[in-house]
Amino acid sequence: MVVNTASECGYTPQYAQLQELYNTYKDKGFVILGFPSNDFGGQEPGTEKDIAAFCQKNYGVTFPMMAKVSTKGSEQHAVYNWLANKEQNGVMDTAVKWNFHKYLIDEQGHLVMSLESGVEPTDARVTNWIEGK
To answer: Whole-prediction pTM value?
Structure first.
């Protein structure tokens, strides 16, 4: 799962569910990559060190947190360019509209699903996909 994160967002409590999901499925090969981003409402103003400390202290985050990136616009990171463009990912065009947008990618590197911010990390669509149901 790839998810853009922010420390000062209404969806920030999703860190707890992300960590729960990671704890439950990490031994089955499931990985979450958090990409902090300040693209929406300036809700991730901290440095990467600040963000890591916040995540660890408040949510016990142990899944990998990447460098702070842009998810849209002219500074869009290559990962998000691939996720957002059917020409590149071969599956769908998407747009990250807010923090905590989630993408599911399978073991072969294929984009499987795009889930908007309001979809909780432990939603049945996510857990059923991980469990192969």
So the answer is: 0.96
